[in-house]
Amino acid sequence: MKKEVVLIALGFAFLMGCNGNTDEPVQETTPPIPLINYSVKRTYLHDTTSFTEGLLFHEGALYESTGAQPDLLSTRSLFGELSLKTGRIDVKAELDRDKYFGEGIVFFGDKVYQLTYTTQKGFIYDARTFKPIREFSFPNKEGWGMTTDSTYLIMSDGTNQLTYYYPDSFVMKQTVPVSYAQNPVDRLNELEYINGFIYANVYTTSTIVKIDPATGVIVGRIDLSSLFNEVKQMYPGALEMNGIAYNPSSGTVFITGKMWPVIYEISFPI
Protein backbone atom coordinates (compact mmCIF):
# COMPACT_ATOMS: atom_id res chain seq x y z
CA MET A 1 0.00 0.00 0.00
CA LYS A 2 1.04 3.56 -0.56
CA LYS A 3 1.34 4.48 3.09
CA GLU A 4 3.31 1.47 4.28
CA VAL A 5 7.09 1.27 4.45
CA VAL A 6 7.98 -1.56 2.08
CA LEU A 7 10.77 -2.41 -0.31
CA ILE A 8 9.31 -2.12 -3.79
CA ALA A 9 10.96 -2.92 -7.11
CA LEU A 10 9.77 0.16 -8.92
CA GLY A 11 11.27 -0.59 -12.29
CA PHE A 12 12.81 2.88 -12.34
CA ALA A 13 16.27 1.84 -13.49
CA PHE A 14 15.77 3.99 -16.55
CA LEU A 15 15.40 7.05 -14.33
CA MET A 16 19.12 6.78 -13.68
CA GLY A 17 19.97 5.59 -17.17
CA CYS A 18 20.69 1.98 -16.14
CA ASN A 19 19.94 -0.96 -18.43
CA GLY A 20 19.48 -3.35 -15.49
CA ASN A 21 20.43 -6.48 -17.49
CA THR A 22 23.95 -7.72 -16.80
CA ASP A 23 23.55 -11.12 -18.51
CA GLU A 24 22.86 -9.96 -22.03
CA PRO A 25 24.99 -7.82 -24.33
CA VAL A 26 23.76 -4.25 -24.27
CA GLN A 27 22.41 -3.36 -27.68
CA GLU A 28 20.83 -0.05 -26.81
CA THR A 29 20.55 1.95 -23.60
CA THR A 30 18.01 4.53 -22.60
CA PRO A 31 19.73 7.86 -22.00
CA PRO A 32 19.38 9.13 -18.44
CA ILE A 33 16.89 11.81 -17.67
CA PRO A 34 18.78 15.14 -17.62
CA LEU A 35 19.86 15.95 -14.08
CA ILE A 36 18.85 19.31 -12.62
CA ASN A 37 21.43 20.60 -10.17
CA TYR A 38 20.28 22.36 -7.00
CA SER A 39 21.70 24.15 -3.99
CA VAL A 40 20.38 24.33 -0.43
CA LYS A 41 19.66 27.87 0.75
CA ARG A 42 18.20 27.34 4.23
CA THR A 43 16.65 24.75 6.51
CA TYR A 44 13.61 25.16 8.75
CA LEU A 45 11.99 23.10 11.47
CA HIS A 46 9.33 20.52 10.62
CA ASP A 47 7.12 18.54 12.98
CA THR A 48 8.10 14.85 13.01
CA THR A 49 4.48 13.85 13.64
CA SER A 50 3.43 15.40 10.30
CA PHE A 51 2.84 12.67 7.72
CA THR A 52 3.25 15.05 4.79
CA GLU A 53 0.96 14.67 1.79
CA GLY A 54 0.99 18.18 0.33
CA LEU A 55 2.98 21.39 0.54
CA LEU A 56 2.28 24.74 -1.13
CA PHE A 57 2.51 28.50 -0.82
CA HIS A 58 -0.62 30.63 -0.88
CA GLU A 59 -0.53 34.41 -0.54
CA GLY A 60 2.93 34.27 0.99
CA ALA A 61 2.10 31.60 3.58
CA LEU A 62 3.25 27.98 3.53
CA TYR A 63 0.53 25.34 3.90
CA GLU A 64 0.87 21.64 4.60
CA SER A 65 -1.61 18.77 4.39
CA THR A 66 -1.07 15.51 6.25
CA GLY A 67 -2.51 12.02 6.50
CA ALA A 68 -3.37 9.81 9.47
CA GLN A 69 -1.38 6.59 9.26
CA PRO A 70 -3.38 3.95 11.19
CA ASP A 71 -0.35 2.47 12.97
CA LEU A 72 1.02 5.90 13.90
CA LEU A 73 -1.44 7.33 16.39
CA SER A 74 0.28 10.72 16.53
CA THR A 75 -0.53 11.38 12.85
CA ARG A 76 -3.64 13.29 11.75
CA SER A 77 -5.56 14.06 8.55
CA LEU A 78 -5.50 17.84 8.41
CA PHE A 79 -4.18 20.91 6.65
CA GLY A 80 -3.17 24.36 7.77
CA GLU A 81 -0.59 27.11 7.75
CA LEU A 82 2.89 25.91 8.62
CA SER A 83 5.18 27.96 10.86
CA LEU A 84 8.76 28.01 9.63
CA LYS A 85 9.88 29.02 13.13
CA THR A 86 8.35 26.10 15.00
CA GLY A 87 7.50 23.55 12.30
CA ARG A 88 3.98 23.34 13.70
CA ILE A 89 0.78 23.54 11.68
CA ASP A 90 -1.94 26.03 12.55
CA VAL A 91 -4.80 23.67 11.74
CA LYS A 92 -7.50 25.05 9.44
CA ALA A 93 -9.45 21.83 8.80
CA GLU A 94 -9.25 18.27 10.10
CA LEU A 95 -10.91 15.02 9.00
CA ASP A 96 -11.97 12.07 11.12
CA ARG A 97 -8.83 9.90 11.06
CA ASP A 98 -10.96 6.75 11.37
CA LYS A 99 -12.80 7.59 8.14
CA TYR A 100 -10.40 9.48 5.92
CA PHE A 101 -6.73 9.59 5.07
CA GLY A 102 -5.98 13.18 4.10
CA GLU A 103 -3.98 13.76 0.93
CA GLY A 104 -2.95 16.70 -1.27
CA ILE A 105 -4.56 20.14 -1.25
CA VAL A 106 -4.73 23.05 -3.66
CA PHE A 107 -6.04 26.61 -3.48
CA PHE A 108 -8.09 27.73 -6.48
CA GLY A 109 -9.86 31.07 -6.49
CA ASP A 110 -11.71 31.43 -3.21
CA LYS A 111 -11.67 27.73 -2.39
CA VAL A 112 -9.41 25.02 -1.02
CA TYR A 113 -9.70 21.48 -2.40
CA GLN A 114 -8.58 18.52 -0.29
CA LEU A 115 -8.18 14.93 -1.51
CA THR A 116 -8.51 11.72 0.45
CA TYR A 117 -6.66 8.51 -0.29
CA THR A 118 -8.96 5.53 -0.98
CA THR A 119 -12.47 6.83 -0.28
CA GLN A 120 -12.78 8.51 -3.72
CA LYS A 121 -14.00 11.63 -1.98
CA GLY A 122 -12.70 15.15 -1.62
CA PHE A 123 -13.68 18.25 0.35
CA ILE A 124 -13.98 21.92 -0.61
CA TYR A 125 -13.51 24.75 1.89
CA ASP A 126 -13.80 28.52 1.84
CA ALA A 127 -10.23 29.79 1.34
CA ARG A 128 -10.71 32.62 3.88
CA THR A 129 -12.70 31.04 6.67
CA PHE A 130 -11.82 27.39 5.94
CA LYS A 131 -15.43 26.42 6.57
CA PRO A 132 -16.59 23.34 4.61
CA ILE A 133 -18.58 24.15 1.46
CA ARG A 134 -19.24 20.82 -0.21
CA GLU A 135 -17.79 17.47 -1.21
CA PHE A 136 -16.75 16.05 -4.58
CA SER A 137 -15.92 12.59 -5.90
CA PHE A 138 -13.42 11.00 -8.26
CA PRO A 139 -14.66 7.44 -8.96
CA ASN A 140 -12.21 4.63 -9.68
CA LYS A 141 -9.19 6.66 -8.60
CA GLU A 142 -7.09 7.11 -5.50
CA GLY A 143 -6.31 10.63 -4.33
CA TRP A 144 -2.59 11.40 -4.04
CA GLY A 145 -1.35 14.86 -5.05
CA MET A 146 -2.96 17.97 -6.51
CA THR A 147 -1.91 21.23 -8.12
CA THR A 148 -3.29 23.78 -10.59
CA ASP A 149 -2.21 25.53 -13.76
CA SER A 150 -4.61 28.40 -12.89
CA THR A 151 -7.22 26.94 -15.27
CA TYR A 152 -7.69 23.32 -14.20
CA LEU A 153 -7.11 21.21 -11.11
CA ILE A 154 -4.48 18.53 -11.79
CA MET A 155 -4.49 15.33 -9.74
CA SER A 156 -2.17 12.34 -9.36
CA ASP A 157 -3.49 8.93 -8.32
CA GLY A 158 -0.36 6.82 -7.85
CA THR A 159 -0.19 5.73 -11.48
CA ASN A 160 1.54 7.45 -14.39
CA GLN A 161 -1.64 9.41 -15.14
CA LEU A 162 -2.25 13.07 -14.41
CA THR A 163 -5.95 13.92 -14.48
CA TYR A 164 -7.28 17.39 -15.25
CA TYR A 165 -10.58 18.52 -13.69
CA TYR A 166 -12.82 21.54 -14.13
CA PRO A 167 -12.70 23.35 -10.75
CA ASP A 168 -16.39 24.28 -10.52
CA SER A 169 -17.80 20.83 -11.23
CA PHE A 170 -14.81 18.54 -10.69
CA VAL A 171 -15.75 16.91 -14.00
CA MET A 172 -12.78 15.29 -15.68
CA LYS A 173 -11.40 17.08 -18.74
CA GLN A 174 -8.54 14.82 -19.75
CA THR A 175 -5.78 12.51 -18.59
CA VAL A 176 -2.13 12.90 -19.52
CA PRO A 177 0.14 9.82 -19.29
CA VAL A 178 3.63 10.56 -17.99
CA SER A 179 6.64 8.82 -19.49
CA TYR A 180 10.30 9.01 -20.34
CA ALA A 181 11.73 7.44 -23.50
CA GLN A 182 8.28 5.85 -23.99
CA ASN A 183 8.50 4.14 -20.58
CA PRO A 184 5.58 4.95 -18.25
CA VAL A 185 6.68 6.52 -14.95
CA ASP A 186 4.16 5.73 -12.26
CA ARG A 187 3.82 6.38 -8.52
CA LEU A 188 3.54 10.11 -9.17
CA ASN A 189 2.69 11.67 -5.83
CA GLU A 190 2.81 15.28 -4.60
CA LEU A 191 2.59 17.81 -7.46
CA GLU A 192 3.63 21.44 -7.96
CA TYR A 193 3.04 23.56 -11.07
CA ILE A 194 6.00 25.90 -11.66
CA ASN A 195 6.43 28.16 -14.67
CA GLY A 196 4.68 25.93 -17.18
CA PHE A 197 5.94 22.57 -15.90
CA ILE A 198 4.66 20.06 -13.37
CA TYR A 199 7.10 18.79 -10.75
CA ALA A 200 6.23 15.50 -9.05
CA ASN A 201 7.62 13.41 -6.22
CA VAL A 202 8.07 9.79 -7.30
CA TYR A 203 6.81 7.75 -4.37
CA THR A 204 9.41 5.72 -2.41
CA THR A 205 12.26 7.52 -4.18
CA SER A 206 14.18 10.71 -3.47
CA THR A 207 13.57 11.92 -7.02
CA ILE A 208 11.49 14.83 -8.25
CA VAL A 209 10.68 14.70 -11.95
CA LYS A 210 9.95 17.70 -14.18
CA ILE A 211 7.06 17.02 -16.58
CA ASP A 212 6.03 18.83 -19.75
CA PRO A 213 2.24 18.97 -19.23
CA ALA A 214 1.56 19.29 -22.96
CA THR A 215 3.12 15.92 -23.76
CA GLY A 216 3.52 14.16 -20.41
CA VAL A 217 7.20 13.68 -21.19
CA ILE A 218 9.69 13.97 -18.33
CA VAL A 219 12.34 16.54 -19.25
CA GLY A 220 14.44 16.59 -16.08
CA ARG A 221 14.95 15.13 -12.63
CA ILE A 222 16.27 16.33 -9.29
CA ASP A 223 18.13 13.73 -7.22
CA LEU A 224 17.65 14.61 -3.56
CA SER A 225 18.97 11.36 -2.10
CA SER A 226 21.77 13.19 -0.25
CA LEU A 227 19.16 15.25 1.62
CA PHE A 228 17.16 12.12 2.43
CA ASN A 229 20.29 10.45 3.82
CA GLU A 230 21.03 13.57 5.87
CA VAL A 231 17.50 13.56 7.28
CA LYS A 232 17.74 9.88 8.28
CA GLN A 233 20.88 10.72 10.23
CA MET A 234 18.98 13.48 12.05
CA TYR A 235 15.88 11.43 12.72
CA PRO A 236 15.79 7.68 11.93
CA GLY A 237 11.99 7.69 12.00
CA ALA A 238 11.79 9.91 8.92
CA LEU A 239 10.08 8.28 5.94
CA GLU A 240 10.04 9.00 2.21
CA MET A 241 10.32 12.41 0.62
CA ASN A 242 7.02 14.11 -0.18
CA GLY A 243 6.25 17.81 -0.51
CA ILE A 244 7.11 20.45 -3.11
CA ALA A 245 6.21 24.12 -2.62
CA TYR A 246 7.28 26.91 -4.96
CA ASN A 247 7.68 30.34 -3.40
CA PRO A 248 7.19 32.86 -6.23
CA SER A 249 8.47 35.75 -4.14
CA SER A 250 11.91 34.16 -3.74
CA GLY A 251 11.98 31.85 -6.73
CA THR A 252 12.98 28.98 -4.43
CA VAL A 253 11.36 25.63 -3.70
CA PHE A 254 10.64 24.16 -0.26
CA ILE A 255 10.82 20.37 0.05
CA THR A 256 10.27 17.95 2.92
CA GLY A 257 9.00 14.45 3.63
CA LYS A 258 6.83 12.35 5.87
CA MET A 259 7.86 12.87 9.49
CA TRP A 260 11.01 14.78 8.53
CA PRO A 261 12.56 17.03 11.20
CA VAL A 262 13.38 19.74 8.66
CA ILE A 263 12.19 21.53 5.54
CA TYR A 264 14.82 22.43 2.95
CA GLU A 265 14.66 25.58 0.87
CA ILE A 266 16.45 24.80 -2.37
CA SER A 267 17.23 26.66 -5.57
CA PHE A 268 17.56 25.29 -9.10
CA PRO A 269 17.01 26.59 -12.65
CA ILE A 270 13.24 26.97 -13.12
From TrEMBL:
InterPro entries: QCT, WD40/YVTN_repeat-like_dom_sf. PROSITE patterns: PROKAR_LIPOPROTEIN. It comes from the Bacteria. PANTHER family: GLUTAMINYL-PEPTIDE CYCLOTRANSFERASE (PTHR31270:SF1). This is Glutaminyl-peptide cyclotransferase. It comes from Terrimonas ginsenosidimutans.
